[in-house]
## 1
Amino acid sequence: MNRRIAAVAIAGALLASCNGVQNVMGGDGAESANFIRLFTLFMVLCTIMYLIVVAALLAALWRRRRSGLTVDDRRHHQISPIVRPALIAWTALVVTGLTVLTVASFFIDRSNAATASKPAIHMTVTANQWWWDVEYNLPDVSKTLRTANEIHLPVNVPVHVTLKSNDVIHSFWIPNLAGKQDLIPGRLTDVLLLARKTGLYRGQCAEFCGVQHAQMALDVTVESKRDFERWYSAQLATAKPPATPLQRAGYRYFTTRECAACHNISGTPASGQVAPDLTHLASRRSIAAGALPMNKGNLYGWVADPQSQKPGNHMPTVGLEPNELHGLIAYLETLK
Amino acid sequence: MSSLYRNSLALLLAVAALSACEREERQSRGKPLGETVPASVSPDTIFPQTGKLPPLHPRAAAYERNASAIAEGQRLYSWMNCAGCHSHGGGGMGVALMDGKWRYGGRIDQIVASIAEGRPNGMPAWRDRLTEQQMWQIAAYVRTLSGQAPKDAVSARTDEMSGTPPATQTRREPTRPADSDQQ
């Protein structure tokens, strides 16, 4: 008995932990909340119908069998008087139920479309194998901001996201906020995000896109409007010049050698466009599209041998000398 | 010998035969690691027709017929804007790469040397801008433009608009020096 109670308690605890950073039932965005409403209605209605069907089936199974028929029996073709009203009620119930579900999903669709009609911020997310290129497109083009693998959203502000892909089909999915939307090479798709609760969430590529599909995540931060604006203006700034001799050595390596061929750091000669923008790398929560938490050790591991951290990714192993590696990490850590 | 016994034996043999199928090696890290200037990437890599060519570089085998290396090379060709001068093989400001004519040699290690060291009249040296693995991958792709790579290793799809048939249908051009038609 005790063991059963313990099992139920554990199951309950497991269910209670279903409110993490990547949760379809989170309901932290307008579309996600709508989805949960619709899901609950469908669940309740379908459960009621299911219970009625099962009850009728059980009743039929348990009903006493009639005595054997004889030729003289004139009553064997008669049906019980309860059948006709029961059938009419059943049909009415089915029609009503389906109508309720249809109308409800129609209204939810309208609600989603209404949110989408007046976006306040436009951004573009471009998927690559296996990272996200993020660009905020303000009406003032001098305030265009490019970052990678993270998005910040102001709470209660509708954000329109244009989705592109550079190589294969990916899918953009922040379960806590909204549904999935595919990113298709050569085509534009879009999604609307309206976050209702501040917090840290996780987006994930939801369409298999190659060996590192599972390690293609997006750090999502929903914050107050003031925090968002502070973050935005900090991100617009160019990178600070290196201060110590070690940082200067790293800066020199970065801007004159392999790194700069692919990576961009605003305010420096490094202006590669095919890999994540590193201007404010050290201010992010993770590196390599959510593959590793951002810290000194992981930066060392990643820069020294990216192919051991995320095999198959498109960053080559450069083969750095130890002093070059120390310099690079010292410099990258200044990119707050 | 029962039929069951015979059938299971045949099945086992088929499985054993399948397991012997050679699987292409995909070396994401590019071995050997940290290798500096290999023999082919030394300043003395131009071999005019009169010179005697050294044997093919041992690393050539790992890249030359390797589908993943060729595909990565194709990606890098576009990322590093090789098309800016060479177009998609047809040439422009830079020489054409699809005609099988090679001013500085058409072997993969010679192409790696040309990429690494740069060549007169505008080809920049990429030695410190690309890793060696990347230069080998680009060279493997460049060879496919004139049909030098086996058709089962090249990509049937190019990412850009092209007036030529895909690499799987490209006719193989004989390798010859660039000035061979100036007679």
## 2
Amino acid sequence: MITEIGNFLLSISASLSLCIFLSLFLKKTISNEVRFLFCKIASHIITFLIFISFVLLSYAFLTDDFSLRYVANNSNVSLENIYKFSAVWGAHEGSILLWVFVLSIWSSCIVLFSSSIPKVIVSDMLSIMGILLLFFLIFILFSSNPFDRIFPIPINGRDLNPLLQDPGLIIHPPMLYIGYVGTSVPFVFAISILLNENIKLEWISWLRKWVISSWMFLTIGISLGSWWAYHELGWGGWWFWDPVENASFMPWLAITALLHSLIVSEKRGIFISWSILLAILTFSLSLLGTFLVRSGILVSVHAFANDPERGMYILIFLSLIIGLSLGLYFIKSRSLIYEKEYTVSSKEFILLLNNLFLTITTFAILLGTLYPLITSSLNLGKISVGAPYFNFIFSALMLPIVFLMSPAIYSTWKKTNYSKLTKKLLTFLFYSIVITYIFMNFYFKSDIFIVYLAMSLAFFTIISSVAKLLLILKNSNNKKIISNIFSIPSSMLSNLLAHIGIGILIIGITLSNYYSIQKEVAMQQNSQILVKDITIKFVDVKNKISKNYTSQVGVFDAYINNDYFISFFPEKRTYNIQKNIMTEAAINSTLLRDIYVALGENLSNDTWVVRIYYKPYIQLLWYGVLLMILGGLFGIFGRNKLEKKLNNDS
Amino acid sequence: MIRKLSALPILIFLVIVYFLYSGLSKDPTLIPSPLIGKTIPEFTSKTLFDGNTITSKDLLGKSFIINVWGSWCYGCSIEHDYLIDISSKNTIQIYGLNYKDDRSSAIKWLQSKGNPYRRVIFDSSGDIAIDFGVYGAPETFLVNEQGVIIHKHVGPIDQSYYNNVILPNLRK
């Protein structure tokens, strides 16, 4: 029954999506009100139907309905319930269903939160959403149907990929998808603007909140992925420049650029045509990411099934959507170009530079990711550029971006008082260099130039942002500190928090990269090893049997100056069904450092390869990301000045 | 000027689509090796266990596979069960090329995990691997009875390697 109902619901949704899309061509014949009402109701119905089919699939997983091929391939009776549920999006078919589900939610959100936008524009946006929904629904129905049956019905399923049996991965894909798919909102907005050749500045401040939401969810999704890799892969790394990681990072860079160019568009009414192009670019990169991940044309640690036919479908869809959008942009964008004067010292100019660098970075990463494809189709052999290329190019391009953050905060629109700006910035720069010098020279006793550079820039950003925050607090008339904080314009607060977050993130990345201690040694039981000032003693390996895996648990005791300090229990799990071996690292974290212990190969009875990492300040990385997310929250939920003004006027 | 510039995204996009399209029809794990269709490089080395001399001529006669591995290599432990499975079928001989490894840890590794190899060439310096054009471990070469390399696989092998690579070539 589930198969029939599921297919039925998805088919109805597909037909409704088609109708919403077609209503675009009836613009002249039916009244705006009627069309808006239709698009609105139909969008909600689609969301509801896809939601039900999603619930059905979850139900099939939770009740072990192995008559569905997808369930049989990705679940098992002995799997814990929470993983049975997360297995819904554990493989290709289900994750595409999640994609469409999230897309339909975004389109319903457009309906719900767009009272300030004219109905024509909203209807057009929903129509474009309709064609996106239609393509993905057809894709599901004809080549990735999670409701397909299997015969004979297996007694038990093949189990969920053990890599995915981790709490971090329950929430990582949905967050990432919400961010990924959220880039469709600026995209459909851009297309509607191009179709109508009309834009008002208050629409841009409306769009900015959507862009921030999508940016925030992408940030959460990407960082959860890194967090998972750090804990689960057992190599102590958190970023590998893997094609799948790049696929989510490129839209993040593009949407960050969009976020900044929209500020200029909103405040000054320029860069509009550029913002529109960036919106198209961001969504194109999301689609490209989906294509790269789902077609399997690049080798990745995320071993998803390769299927050229599916890849072909997404490629055709991607070419049509992006090709038509860029064509439309080519024809119509000229009407959206406004020119106003601004000088080299203005905020406009600094944000323009920021956009330039972010776009170049995006393309550099795109080039590196596609490099194996490019060389192989030019018959130069299949060459991957790998981490060295990305690390070099990314840090080289990030330094100027970070350097520009402080000037961007203190500069003003149109023209900045140049001498005042430089005086202020030089003071901050001076302090940040002094702090870096004291910290690095006396604490780390190190003299690596690039570390000094990165640290000074990070401190420069943090000091400037904090100083600005204090300045605003001092200048406001209110005496109470709490209400003072709330009186800061939320856009300013969100901006400062996110930039402080970036600064902290950079400090965490730099220090943990350059000063971590890594030991990969064969250890006998009862032997010990000294890492920094900590003695780690290998005590024992015990066997543990769980519901769907057996594991060997290492017992390590750590001592500081002969005082017992803590025990580590790293695990090596063997999952019963797919016979995969998974590493669970044991990590002890404080703000100052992580100690990371992972079990490697078993060499003989009592000898194991043990990986021990000492990573200073790596926790700052996660705190930095949290601040960025907090900044995003303020950006979404805080009321900005313009809105207040509009409300007061009316 | 601006009109011309706004056509630029379309051009870039078309180029990217071309590369994506051409990539679809290719297998990403297949790194073309200039050695395919050529005889295996000549070498003289010692075996891992007994230290006897082994040369490239000793391998010839029947078709065989050479598996490049090391006890330090994570991917090798993933594919190890499949190698043991293949060797238990007795249809094709497997030679090991122990790559940049330490003799005692390599022996221990095989003793604890089982030994699928007929003989293991000990290549601690990695010189022989360079002649084979090895990118890293694990890699697996399929060689026919004349000593001509007919297939190269990069990364851990799995069940499909036996079914899709070895079997079709044995039947020829």
